[in-house]
Protein backbone atom coordinates (compact mmCIF):
# COMPACT_ATOMS: atom_id res chain seq x y z
CA UNK A 1 0.00 0.00 0.00
CA UNK A 2 1.52 3.29 -1.08
CA UNK A 3 1.87 6.10 1.40
CA UNK A 4 0.11 9.42 0.79
CA UNK A 5 2.59 11.96 -0.51
CA UNK A 6 3.24 15.18 1.39
CA UNK A 7 1.96 17.27 -1.51
CA UNK A 8 -1.35 15.43 -1.54
CA UNK A 9 -2.21 16.33 2.10
CA UNK A 10 -2.78 20.10 1.49
CA UNK A 11 -4.85 19.28 -1.59
CA UNK A 12 -7.02 16.92 0.48
CA UNK A 13 -7.52 19.53 3.20
CA UNK A 14 -8.45 22.10 0.57
CA UNK A 15 -11.07 19.81 -0.94
CA UNK A 16 -12.50 19.09 2.50
CA UNK A 17 -12.76 22.82 3.28
CA UNK A 18 -14.47 23.43 -0.05
CA UNK A 19 -16.91 20.60 0.58
CA UNK A 20 -17.66 21.99 4.04
CA UNK A 21 -18.24 25.49 2.66
CA UNK A 22 -20.53 24.08 -0.04
CA UNK A 23 -22.51 22.20 2.60
CA UNK A 24 -22.85 25.36 4.71
CA UNK A 25 -24.02 27.34 1.68
CA UNK A 26 -26.70 24.74 0.95
CA UNK A 27 -27.90 24.88 4.55
CA UNK A 28 -27.92 28.69 4.46
CA UNK A 29 -29.92 28.64 1.22
CA UNK A 30 -32.51 26.40 2.88
CA UNK A 31 -33.02 28.69 5.89
CA UNK A 32 -32.69 31.98 3.98
CA UNK A 33 -36.43 32.22 3.14
CA UNK A 34 -37.26 31.72 6.83
CA UNK A 35 -34.75 34.40 7.86
CA UNK A 36 -36.21 36.85 5.33
CA UNK A 37 -39.73 36.05 6.56
CA UNK A 38 -38.72 36.61 10.19
CA UNK A 39 -36.93 39.83 9.30
CA UNK A 40 -39.96 41.37 7.56
CA UNK A 41 -42.63 40.07 9.94
CA UNK A 42 -40.85 40.17 13.30
CA UNK A 43 -37.46 41.89 13.51
CA UNK A 44 -38.15 44.96 11.35
CA UNK A 45 -41.61 45.71 12.89
CA UNK A 46 -40.23 45.41 16.42
CA UNK A 47 -37.22 47.54 15.53
CA UNK A 48 -39.52 50.16 13.99
CA UNK A 49 -41.68 50.17 17.11
CA UNK A 50 -38.65 50.64 19.37
CA UNK A 51 -37.39 53.47 17.14
CA UNK A 52 -40.72 55.32 17.17
CA UNK A 53 -40.79 55.15 20.99
CA UNK A 54 -37.62 57.26 21.23
CA UNK A 55 -37.54 59.21 17.94
CA UNK A 56 -38.38 62.92 18.21
CA UNK A 57 -37.56 65.13 15.22
CA UNK A 58 -40.67 67.20 14.43
CA UNK A 59 -39.87 70.19 16.63
CA UNK A 60 -36.21 70.33 15.59
CA UNK A 61 -37.27 70.27 11.94
CA UNK A 62 -39.81 73.09 12.31
CA UNK A 63 -38.00 75.22 14.93
CA UNK A 64 -34.28 74.66 14.24
CA UNK A 65 -33.09 78.10 15.46
CA UNK A 66 -35.08 77.81 18.68
CA UNK A 67 -33.72 74.34 19.41
CA UNK A 68 -30.17 75.55 18.79
CA UNK A 69 -30.65 78.56 21.08
CA UNK A 70 -31.86 76.31 23.92
CA UNK A 71 -28.79 74.08 23.85
CA UNK A 72 -27.32 74.34 27.33
CA UNK A 73 -30.41 76.01 28.80
CA UNK A 74 -30.87 74.64 32.34
CA UNK A 75 -34.58 75.35 32.75
CA UNK A 76 -34.27 77.31 35.97
CA UNK A 77 -35.21 80.69 34.43
CA UNK A 78 -36.55 82.09 31.20
CA UNK A 79 -34.17 81.99 28.22
CA UNK A 80 -32.77 85.27 26.98
CA UNK A 81 -33.78 87.53 24.11
CA UNK A 82 -31.87 85.43 21.52
CA UNK A 83 -34.17 82.45 22.19
CA UNK A 84 -37.28 84.62 21.78
CA UNK A 85 -35.88 86.09 18.56
CA UNK A 86 -35.05 82.61 17.25
CA UNK A 87 -38.57 81.40 18.04
CA UNK A 88 -40.14 84.39 16.29
CA UNK A 89 -37.98 83.81 13.19
CA UNK A 90 -38.78 80.07 13.16
CA UNK A 91 -42.51 80.66 13.53
CA UNK A 92 -42.54 83.27 10.79
CA UNK A 93 -40.80 80.87 8.39
CA UNK A 94 -42.88 77.89 9.47
CA UNK A 95 -46.09 79.88 8.98
CA UNK A 96 -45.07 80.67 5.42
CA UNK A 97 -44.14 77.02 4.76
CA UNK A 98 -47.23 75.72 6.63
CA UNK A 99 -45.19 73.35 8.80
CA UNK A 100 -46.35 74.68 12.19
CA UNK A 101 -48.98 71.90 12.77
CA UNK A 102 -46.31 69.19 12.94
CA UNK A 103 -44.48 70.87 15.83
CA UNK A 104 -47.73 72.02 17.45
CA UNK A 105 -49.08 68.46 17.50
CA UNK A 106 -45.92 67.09 19.14
CA UNK A 107 -45.77 69.84 21.78
CA UNK A 108 -49.45 69.40 22.58
CA UNK A 109 -48.70 65.81 23.68
CA UNK A 110 -46.54 67.33 26.42
CA UNK A 111 -48.50 70.45 27.41
CA UNK A 112 -52.23 70.64 26.80
CA UNK A 113 -53.12 73.75 24.81
CA UNK A 114 -49.71 74.12 23.21
CA UNK A 115 -51.16 73.57 19.74
CA UNK A 116 -53.43 76.60 20.09
CA UNK A 117 -50.59 78.64 21.56
CA UNK A 118 -48.15 77.86 18.75
CA UNK A 119 -50.64 78.24 15.90
CA UNK A 120 -51.98 81.59 17.12
CA UNK A 121 -48.47 82.92 17.80
CA UNK A 122 -47.30 81.88 14.33
CA UNK A 123 -50.19 83.73 12.69
CA UNK A 124 -49.51 86.90 14.70
CA UNK A 125 -45.76 86.78 14.10
CA UNK A 126 -46.22 86.27 10.37
CA UNK A 127 -48.63 89.23 10.20
CA UNK A 128 -46.45 91.52 12.37
CA UNK A 129 -42.84 90.35 12.77
CA UNK A 130 -41.25 91.74 15.98
CA UNK A 131 -38.57 94.40 15.67
CA UNK A 132 -34.97 93.54 16.49
CA UNK A 133 -34.42 93.30 20.23
CA UNK A 134 -38.17 93.30 20.96
CA UNK A 135 -39.02 89.62 20.33
CA UNK A 136 -39.52 88.79 24.01
CA UNK A 137 -41.91 91.69 24.58
CA UNK A 138 -43.78 90.91 21.38
CA UNK A 139 -44.28 87.22 22.24
CA UNK A 140 -45.34 88.01 25.79
CA UNK A 141 -47.83 90.50 24.40
CA UNK A 142 -49.23 87.82 22.08
CA UNK A 143 -49.63 85.27 24.92
CA UNK A 144 -48.40 85.47 28.54
CA UNK A 145 -47.64 81.72 28.49
CA UNK A 146 -44.39 82.52 26.66
CA UNK A 147 -43.27 83.94 29.98
CA UNK A 148 -43.61 80.54 31.72
CA UNK A 149 -40.60 78.28 32.13
CA UNK A 150 -42.68 75.15 31.49
CA UNK A 151 -43.62 76.41 28.02
CA UNK A 152 -39.98 76.64 27.03
CA UNK A 153 -39.27 73.39 28.86
CA UNK A 154 -41.67 71.56 26.55
CA UNK A 155 -39.75 72.85 23.50
CA UNK A 156 -36.45 71.90 25.11
CA UNK A 157 -37.67 68.37 25.92
CA UNK A 158 -38.80 67.93 22.31
CA UNK A 159 -35.50 69.11 20.81
CA UNK A 160 -34.61 65.56 19.71
CA UNK A 161 -33.34 63.69 17.90
CA UNK A 162 -34.03 61.13 20.65
CA UNK A 163 -36.30 61.46 23.65
CA UNK A 164 -37.50 59.51 26.67
CA UNK A 165 -40.77 61.46 26.75
CA UNK A 166 -42.99 58.65 25.46
CA UNK A 167 -41.40 55.90 27.54
CA UNK A 168 -41.66 58.01 30.70
CA UNK A 169 -45.27 58.91 29.87
CA UNK A 170 -46.13 55.21 29.47
CA UNK A 171 -44.99 54.78 33.09
CA UNK A 172 -46.84 57.90 34.33
CA UNK A 173 -43.62 59.91 34.61
CA UNK A 174 -42.38 63.10 32.97
CA UNK A 175 -39.48 65.51 33.04
CA UNK A 176 -39.72 69.02 34.41
CA UNK A 177 -38.13 72.02 32.72
CA UNK A 178 -34.89 71.48 34.67
CA UNK A 179 -34.69 67.80 33.60
CA UNK A 180 -35.85 66.13 36.82
CA UNK A 181 -38.07 63.05 36.47
CA UNK A 182 -41.27 63.32 38.52
CA UNK A 183 -44.54 61.44 38.68
CA UNK A 184 -47.58 62.50 36.69
CA UNK A 185 -50.36 64.07 38.82
CA UNK A 186 -52.76 61.47 40.18
CA UNK A 187 -55.71 62.79 38.16
CA UNK A 188 -53.71 62.32 34.93
CA UNK A 189 -51.91 59.07 35.74
CA UNK A 190 -53.59 56.16 33.94
CA UNK A 191 -51.01 53.88 32.36
CA UNK A 192 -49.63 52.17 35.47
CA UNK A 193 -53.20 51.39 36.50
CA UNK A 194 -53.93 50.04 33.03
CA UNK A 195 -50.74 47.95 33.07
CA UNK A 196 -51.60 46.49 36.49
CA UNK A 197 -55.15 45.80 35.28
CA UNK A 198 -53.74 44.04 32.21
CA UNK A 199 -51.46 41.89 34.35
CA UNK A 200 -54.29 41.11 36.79
CA UNK A 201 -56.68 40.00 34.05
CA UNK A 202 -53.91 37.97 32.40
CA UNK A 203 -53.00 36.18 35.64
CA UNK A 204 -56.63 35.32 36.45
CA UNK A 205 -57.41 34.11 32.92
CA UNK A 206 -54.22 32.02 32.92
CA UNK A 207 -55.24 30.49 36.26
CA UNK A 208 -58.74 29.70 34.98
CA UNK A 209 -57.32 28.11 31.83
CA UNK A 210 -54.97 25.99 33.94
CA UNK A 211 -57.79 25.00 36.29
CA UNK A 212 -59.98 23.86 33.41
CA UNK A 213 -57.27 22.69 31.05
CA UNK A 214 -55.33 20.38 33.39
CA UNK A 215 -58.12 17.82 34.00
CA UNK A 216 -59.13 18.02 30.33
CA UNK A 217 -55.58 17.30 29.18
CA UNK A 218 -55.29 14.50 31.77
CA UNK A 219 -58.46 12.91 30.42
CA UNK A 220 -57.21 13.17 26.83
CA UNK A 221 -53.87 11.62 27.76
CA UNK A 222 -55.53 8.77 29.67
CA UNK A 223 -58.15 7.74 27.11
CA UNK A 224 -57.52 5.28 24.26
CA UNK A 225 -56.28 6.88 21.07
CA UNK A 226 -59.60 6.66 19.21
CA UNK A 227 -61.61 8.37 21.95
CA UNK A 228 -58.85 10.89 22.62
CA UNK A 229 -58.73 11.89 18.95
CA UNK A 230 -62.49 12.41 18.93
CA UNK A 231 -62.33 14.67 21.99
CA UNK A 232 -59.34 16.51 20.55
CA UNK A 233 -61.55 17.60 17.67
CA UNK A 234 -63.77 19.43 20.17
CA UNK A 235 -60.69 21.06 21.70
CA UNK A 236 -59.55 22.28 18.28
CA UNK A 237 -63.03 23.24 17.09
CA UNK A 238 -62.73 26.89 18.31
CA UNK A 239 -59.78 27.39 15.92
CA UNK A 240 -62.16 26.73 13.03
CA UNK A 241 -64.63 29.41 14.18
CA UNK A 242 -64.18 33.15 13.78
CA UNK A 243 -63.25 34.97 16.98
CA UNK A 244 -65.92 37.59 16.36
CA UNK A 245 -68.54 34.86 15.98
CA UNK A 246 -67.55 33.35 19.31
CA UNK A 247 -67.63 36.73 21.05
CA UNK A 248 -71.03 37.55 19.61
CA UNK A 249 -72.25 34.16 20.83
CA UNK A 250 -71.09 35.01 24.36
CA UNK A 251 -72.88 38.36 24.18
CA UNK A 252 -76.09 36.51 23.30
CA UNK A 253 -75.58 33.92 26.04
CA UNK A 254 -74.57 36.29 28.86
CA UNK A 255 -76.89 39.25 28.30
CA UNK A 256 -79.69 39.99 30.75
CA UNK A 257 -82.28 38.06 28.72
CA UNK A 258 -79.77 35.51 27.48
CA UNK A 259 -79.75 31.75 27.85
CA UNK A 260 -77.59 31.68 31.00
CA UNK A 261 -79.72 34.15 32.93
CA UNK A 262 -82.96 32.52 31.77
CA UNK A 263 -81.71 29.12 32.94
CA UNK A 264 -80.68 30.48 36.32
CA UNK A 265 -84.05 32.20 36.72
CA UNK A 266 -85.87 29.03 35.71
CA UNK A 267 -84.00 26.94 38.29
CA UNK A 268 -84.70 29.53 40.99
CA UNK A 269 -81.03 30.15 41.78
CA UNK A 270 -81.45 33.89 41.20
CA UNK A 271 -84.38 36.30 41.47
CA UNK A 272 -83.13 38.89 38.97
CA UNK A 273 -80.85 38.68 35.91
CA UNK A 274 -77.13 38.90 36.66
CA UNK A 275 -74.92 41.45 34.94
CA UNK A 276 -72.44 39.18 33.15
CA UNK A 277 -71.69 41.21 30.05
CA UNK A 278 -69.82 44.48 29.49
CA UNK A 279 -67.96 43.95 32.77
CA UNK A 280 -65.01 42.01 34.14
CA UNK A 281 -67.00 38.78 34.50
CA UNK A 282 -67.75 38.67 30.79
CA UNK A 283 -64.10 39.37 29.98
CA UNK A 284 -62.93 36.46 32.15
CA UNK A 285 -65.46 34.03 30.66
CA UNK A 286 -64.87 34.96 27.02
CA UNK A 287 -61.07 35.14 27.25
CA UNK A 288 -60.90 31.81 29.09
CA UNK A 289 -63.01 30.19 26.39
CA UNK A 290 -60.87 31.63 23.59
CA UNK A 291 -57.49 30.79 25.16
CA UNK A 292 -58.28 27.43 26.77
CA UNK A 293 -56.98 25.35 23.80
CA UNK A 294 -53.59 27.06 24.10
CA UNK A 295 -53.33 25.64 27.63
CA UNK A 296 -54.68 22.18 26.84
CA UNK A 297 -52.34 21.40 23.94
CA UNK A 298 -49.00 21.89 25.79
CA UNK A 299 -50.39 20.02 28.80
CA UNK A 300 -51.57 17.15 26.65
CA UNK A 301 -48.20 16.91 24.91
CA UNK A 302 -46.41 16.80 28.26
CA UNK A 303 -48.79 14.26 29.82
CA UNK A 304 -48.76 11.99 26.79
CA UNK A 305 -45.00 11.60 27.16
CA UNK A 306 -45.29 10.30 30.76
CA UNK A 307 -45.19 6.45 30.81
CA UNK A 308 -48.21 4.97 32.68
CA UNK A 309 -45.82 2.49 34.29
CA UNK A 310 -44.57 5.24 36.63
CA UNK A 311 -47.92 5.50 38.42
CA UNK A 312 -48.29 1.73 38.57
CA UNK A 313 -44.80 1.46 40.05
CA UNK A 314 -45.64 4.07 42.68
CA UNK A 315 -48.84 2.20 43.57
CA UNK A 316 -46.96 -1.11 43.80
CA UNK A 317 -44.55 0.51 46.26
CA UNK A 318 -47.44 1.47 48.54
CA UNK A 319 -48.03 5.12 47.58
CA UNK A 320 -51.68 6.23 47.85
CA UNK A 321 -53.18 7.55 44.58
CA UNK A 322 -53.06 11.21 45.67
CA UNK A 323 -49.49 10.98 46.91
CA UNK A 324 -48.39 9.16 43.78
CA UNK A 325 -50.02 11.84 41.67
CA UNK A 326 -48.40 14.71 43.58
CA UNK A 327 -44.94 13.14 43.91
CA UNK A 328 -44.60 11.23 40.64
CA UNK A 329 -47.03 12.47 37.99
CA UNK A 330 -47.42 16.18 38.68
CA UNK A 331 -43.68 17.08 38.65
CA UNK A 332 -43.35 15.57 35.17
CA UNK A 333 -46.16 17.79 33.87
CA UNK A 334 -44.52 21.03 35.05
CA UNK A 335 -42.82 21.75 31.68
CA UNK A 336 -46.24 21.56 30.01
CA UNK A 337 -47.80 23.67 32.78
CA UNK A 338 -45.08 26.29 32.39
CA UNK A 339 -45.29 26.34 28.60
CA UNK A 340 -49.08 26.56 28.59
CA UNK A 341 -49.19 29.22 31.29
CA UNK A 342 -46.54 31.31 29.54
CA UNK A 343 -48.29 31.02 26.18
CA UNK A 344 -51.71 31.93 27.57
CA UNK A 345 -50.34 34.77 29.68
CA UNK A 346 -48.46 36.35 26.77
CA UNK A 347 -51.55 36.10 24.57
CA UNK A 348 -53.64 37.66 27.35
CA UNK A 349 -51.29 40.59 27.85
CA UNK A 350 -51.68 41.65 24.23
CA UNK A 351 -55.41 40.91 23.88
CA UNK A 352 -57.61 43.61 22.42
CA UNK A 353 -60.82 42.41 20.74
CA UNK A 354 -62.41 40.52 23.65
CA UNK A 355 -62.13 43.28 26.31
CA UNK A 356 -63.12 45.92 23.72
CA UNK A 357 -66.35 44.12 22.78
CA UNK A 358 -67.36 42.41 26.03
CA UNK A 359 -65.69 44.54 28.72
CA UNK A 360 -66.76 47.87 30.15
CA UNK A 361 -64.85 51.13 30.34
CA UNK A 362 -62.89 49.96 33.39
CA UNK A 363 -61.97 46.62 31.83
CA UNK A 364 -59.92 47.81 28.86
CA UNK A 365 -56.38 46.49 28.69
CA UNK A 366 -53.22 48.20 27.49
CA UNK A 367 -53.72 46.99 23.91
CA UNK A 368 -56.87 49.14 23.74
CA UNK A 369 -54.79 52.27 24.35
CA UNK A 370 -52.22 51.18 21.78
CA UNK A 371 -55.02 50.90 19.22
CA UNK A 372 -56.43 54.25 20.34
CA UNK A 373 -53.11 56.07 19.87
CA UNK A 374 -52.56 54.32 16.55
CA UNK A 375 -55.98 54.80 14.96
CA UNK A 376 -57.58 57.77 16.72
CA UNK A 377 -54.92 60.31 17.72
CA UNK A 378 -52.17 58.96 15.39
CA UNK A 379 -49.67 59.34 18.23
CA UNK A 380 -47.14 56.79 17.00
CA UNK A 381 -44.64 57.59 19.74
CA UNK A 382 -47.05 56.84 22.58
CA UNK A 383 -48.39 53.71 20.88
CA UNK A 384 -44.82 52.48 20.35
CA UNK A 385 -43.90 53.23 23.97
CA UNK A 386 -46.83 51.22 25.31
CA UNK A 387 -45.92 48.44 22.89
CA UNK A 388 -42.37 48.55 24.22
CA UNK A 389 -43.71 48.12 27.76
CA UNK A 390 -45.58 44.99 26.64
CA UNK A 391 -42.46 43.73 24.88
CA UNK A 392 -40.37 44.18 28.03
CA UNK A 393 -42.97 42.38 30.18
CA UNK A 394 -43.21 39.39 27.82
CA UNK A 395 -39.43 39.23 27.41
CA UNK A 396 -38.92 39.17 31.17
CA UNK A 397 -41.47 36.36 31.50
CA UNK A 398 -39.91 34.34 28.68
CA UNK A 399 -36.41 34.73 30.12
CA UNK A 400 -37.63 33.84 33.62
CA UNK A 401 -39.37 30.72 32.29
CA UNK A 402 -36.26 29.68 30.36
CA UNK A 403 -34.10 30.13 33.48
CA UNK A 404 -36.50 28.14 35.65
CA UNK A 405 -36.68 25.36 33.08
CA UNK A 406 -32.88 25.26 32.77
CA UNK A 407 -32.45 25.20 36.57
CA UNK A 408 -34.97 22.37 36.85
CA UNK A 409 -33.24 20.33 34.16
CA UNK A 410 -29.87 20.90 35.81
CA UNK A 411 -31.23 19.88 39.20
CA UNK A 412 -32.89 16.84 37.67
CA UNK A 413 -29.64 15.89 35.98
CA UNK A 414 -27.74 16.12 39.25
CA UNK A 415 -30.22 13.84 40.93
Proportion of beta-strand residues: under 5%
Q: How many distinct folded domains?
A: 2
Strand order of the largest sheet: 1-2
Number of strands: 2
Order of helices and strands: HHHHHHHHHEEHHHHHHHHHH
The averaged pLDDT comes out at 87
Q: According to CATH, what is the topology of the largest domain? A: MetI-like fold
Distance separating the two termini: 53 Å
Structural class: mainly alpha
Helix percent band: over 70%
* CATH C-level category of the largest domain: Mainly Alpha
* CATH superfamily placement of the largest domain: MetI-like
Give a description of the structure:
The protein is built from 19 helices and 2 strands. A two-stranded antiparallel ribbon has the order 1-2. β1 and β2 form a beta hairpin. The mean pLDDT is 87.
Question: What's the layout of helices and strands?
Answer:
Elements (H helix, E strand, L loop, with lengths): L7 H45 L5 H5 L1 H6 L11 H17 L2 H11 L3 H14 L7 H8 L6 H9 L7 H5 L3 E3 L5 E3 L7 H32 L2 H12 L6 H12 L4 H9 L12 H25 L4 H8 L4 H29 L3 H6 L7 H10 L4 H35 L1
Antiparallel strand pairs: 1-2
Helix pairs in contact: 1-19, 4-6, 5-6, 10-11, 10-14, 10-16, 14-16, 15-16, 16-19, 18-19
Family: Belongs to the binding-protein-dependent transport system permease family. CysTW subfamily.
Subcellular location: Cell membrane
Membrane topology: Multi-pass membrane protein
Any key phrases for this structure?
two-stranded antiparallel ribbon, mainly alpha, extended, 415 residues, MetI-like fold, 19 helices
Brief overview:
With 415 residues, the protein is an all-alpha fold. The protein has helices at 8-52, 58-62, 64-69, 81-97, 100-110, 114-127, 135-142, 149-157, 165-169, 191-222, 225-236, 243-254, 259-267, 280-304, 309-316, 321-349, 353-358, 366-375, 380-414, and strands at residues 173-175, 181-183. A two-stranded antiparallel ribbon has the order 1-2.
Amino acid sequence: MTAVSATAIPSLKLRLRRAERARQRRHAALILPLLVFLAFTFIIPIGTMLWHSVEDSDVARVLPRTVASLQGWRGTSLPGEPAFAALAADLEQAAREQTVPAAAKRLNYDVTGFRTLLMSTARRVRATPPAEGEAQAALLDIDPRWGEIETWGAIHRASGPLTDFYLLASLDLHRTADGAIVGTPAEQAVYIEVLLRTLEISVIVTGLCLLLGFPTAYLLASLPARQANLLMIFVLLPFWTSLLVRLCAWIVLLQGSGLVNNMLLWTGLIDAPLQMIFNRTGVYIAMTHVLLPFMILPLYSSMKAIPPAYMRAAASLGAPPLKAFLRVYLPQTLPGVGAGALLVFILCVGYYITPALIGGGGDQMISYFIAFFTNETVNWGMAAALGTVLLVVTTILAVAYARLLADRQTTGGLK
